[in-house]
User: Fold these one by one.
Assistant:
Number 1:
Amino acid sequence: MSEIKVNKVVDARGSHCPGPLMELIKAIRNAGVGEVIAVYSTDSGSKTDIPRWVEKAGHQLIGVYERNGYTEFIVKKVK
Amino acid sequence: MINVKTKSGFRNLGRKHLHASILMAASPHNLVNRVSLLLSLTDIFNMHSQVKKEKLSIIAFSGTVDKLYPVAILASGAAAMGMDVEIFLTFWGLNAFRKDQLNQPGRISRDFEEMAPVMMNIFKVKNVPHWIDMLKQAKEFGNVKIYACAMTYDLFQMKKEELSELIDGVVGVGEFLEKAKESNITLFI
């Protein structure tokens, strides 16, 4: 498996719904096209909300990983 | 339905007509027309999506924190998803936006009175922001408008300076309904 280069990590652990999603959107707005953002979230709503928003906004969800006590979402800004 | 600008002005173009136009333009003899039609269709769809932006309207009637949080969270979520949001504050909902009320500990519905200390403690331990701060963030994030109900404003003899700065204006029920009828979702909380 090739390692994905992450340009920015958004640690939204401890933030509640829809906090992590809003943190991600802010990071995407400030990122350049092609940049990859990782979001850490302990909010269970993120598991549905982040993939849904990424699809709606037309970006790319590279992966969702269950880590030790939190979920990591890897998102690429495509436009 | 899609509005198309023609020489005679705007007219509605049904799905059937649109389909027919695409078939006509798809003829290989008609490449230039096809390209220009596709370009104009893109414009129409872009225009259409701008005009018909999704919207959430909330009538916030309740002044207890267990109902003001859902208002704030739904507004934040909708703003995050790119929807317009309009909140109409009436009765206890508007009362909760008075500065003197905002400085006091929040009230909770009487039905769940015995749960209040537990709930407040959880919110504190888990660092849940105040609902008014959530709304402030939602306003910074997207197009979120908050209106005070004119009748409540008049009955309780409120003054603009006594209310939270998050309020965008005082409107009557007629104007709010005019705005809300364009919504995809309308809630009474």
Number 2:
Amino acid sequence: MAEASNQSTSTSSPAPLFDREEPLTADTFIRGLWEENPVFVMMLGMCPALAVTNSTINALGMGLSTTFVLICSGALVSWLRNWIPKQVRIASYIVIIATFVTVVDYLIQAISLELYAALGAFIQLIVVNCIILGRAEAYASKQRLLPTIVNSLGTGLGFTLALLSLGTVRELLGNGSILGVQLFSDNFQGWVIMILPPGGFFVLGAWLLFFNWRRLRKERRMTEQTGVIANAV
Amino acid sequence: MPKIIEIRTSPHLKRAVSVDRIMRTVVLALLPIAAFAVWQFGLSVLLLLLTTTGAAVATEWFFARASGRGNTVADWSAVITGLLLGLTLPPGFPLWMAAVAAFVGIALGKALFGGLGYNVMNPALVGRAFVQAAFPVAITTWTPAFAPGRFAELIPSTLTLPFMQPIPVADWIAGLNMDGWSGATPLAMQKFQHIETPITETFTGLIAGSAGETSALLILICGLWLAWQRMLDWRIPASVMAGAALTALPFWLMDPSLYPSPWFVLCSGGLMLAAWFMASDMVASPVTARGVIIYGLFIGVLTVVIRLFGGLVEGVMYAILLGNAIGPLISDWTQPRVYGSVKGKQPPAH
Amino acid sequence: MTIEVELQPPPAATPTWAMLRTLGGIAMISGLLVVVAYQTTLPMIAEKQRILTERLVFQVLPGAVSKRDFIVTEQGALAPAGEGIAGDPIYAAYDAEGRLKGVAISGTGSGYAGPVTVMFAYDPGCHCIVRSKVLKSNETPGFGDKLDTDPEFLKNLEALDARLDVTGTALANPIVTVKHGTKTEPWQIDAITGATISSRAMGKAADQAAQRAVPAIQRELTSLSQPN
């Protein structure tokens, strides 16, 4: 929960980092990709993460669409940030996000009808993806244009990475293929359950187990080396 | 010298019943059923049971070690899970899939919750539910009982290479020249063709089905022995069977040509094995005396409802898993009245 | 957990016009972007859809090189597509010499997990359905998706009788799915063992498609036979 409180717009003093303008550093980008990964660390965007990751291409399509919406809406919010009064900010953000979701909806149809059919209603549901509104509220509304774009890109790619790590495992076990390319012999027995909804829960759980196990191990090592108990997260 | 009077509260004499003693007794009761399954279906079932038991024990050992809980293999519970799982699978089930089922059963059904005593559901059934969803075709592929060369050769699909589709058995079965083999279990024949297999066959178990579920008679004997040894609560199997029979009765009376008779319901499929050996899982069933009866009836009713109206042929597995899931709630509803307390009032706080 | 409440100086009042200006401005930007995106992608999407339909039609009618789109109207008449007439689309496909190869028709039946939409190739010469392709289904992988792959099942759809009755407005024998191994008539579909419900959906889709389209096709066969 430490991450969440960092980001919240609480007014406690001293002001948290993100109430100030942040200089553009490598961390601006890396943070969303790894440390604050939207799915694996912050547990946001669970609905698309479970629903459309039954194949690699669906995961990639969903991840990149969300990244596109994140960057565009973040940029617009950041650019207009001094022009949007506090009282109408949520209405403004939602309209901006909905606009770019509509744009991406048409773009995907123009690129591939098969992908559009596979992603179904989940493209339109990007509107209510909490990652995007969260970024707009917590970051873009307070930061300059360039850091916002970089940070949104990092978060979007972090989301894409998470979806891909679910999608590849599910497609590999469920179909024996990645991106539709059959990796094993034709006799491969697909694990049907991995393509069905329960598979999403199993694979997500397994990844979370893996990441938490790694984190705990790292903390234990830190404690052993320094003799200081690392910040419990 | 004054006489020393030692005062203790009851019980004054007790038998040392330990976890591993209970578990060993259950394994003993399962052995005749396993032996009958091997006699009936041949070497394939022997390998199947060895695989599930071995994989279950290995998984248990690995997780006990990884979580630093010491050696929990010695309590024999993983052996029961492995044996029960093997008995619920089709005789020709590919061994690699059986190993997956055993691993998932122990890992997801038991280790994840904290090991024996903490599992919400019966681990063997968790494993079976997983492979039922993952490999729906393999788990509904049946082979005939008493194939002539069953001790000399394996069912072809048994030795399928890991991660590969099961080797087709249709040609092998055709080569056996078994009379009257239709490829369906008695349950499937009843459901889809409304042909009821005679009770003498389902009761003695000279039929097709999962490895260890065929002989209702043998399971009944082993279960009764276990109940007589006080290693299982007789109320659970009794109420499961009562629930199933009472639900089936009105439908059968309405239309005997369409609906199965209560005794067919009891003796067919996995109901008997499940009622005696799986629903009675000590950890996953409720703890109160009234609770286990509600729990048993729930499982029995649900099994028949799934069989008669669901898409699946057999419903006892999901019925027990759901029963396990509501078990803690049932325990909570049926708490006995604390001695001396008045109904509707909170017992005095200590 | 404690909830922190801090005393703050009263915020400066935001003027009404500032709020209206912002929301109005954003709405205008939004409108502009959506309209531009829609107008730009419209021809691309239409082109994609055309290619996709063409590919599917040529898949169920191999050997065809061109097609003409028609609509079966509510009244059962046949009208050229693209004039804003509502109804079910059918596609007449022609080979290199301009002969009618067959007509692609589609129908829907409800399966185990929602509707199953299937495209069928109808051959007016033999009055039967000669091929099928599932367009959309959510059937369980391993069972229901056999509708497109099971060779024994597909034999059912190589000459599925769709003859009209004497009035010419409905099929003489409705297409039905029967239990595995009990097919006796050419208008029956032999179900796949273990996937009876999905097989039944296939039968319903075939019946629906044929009942709607075949009367119109047979009536207008002469005009359909000439490419353009």
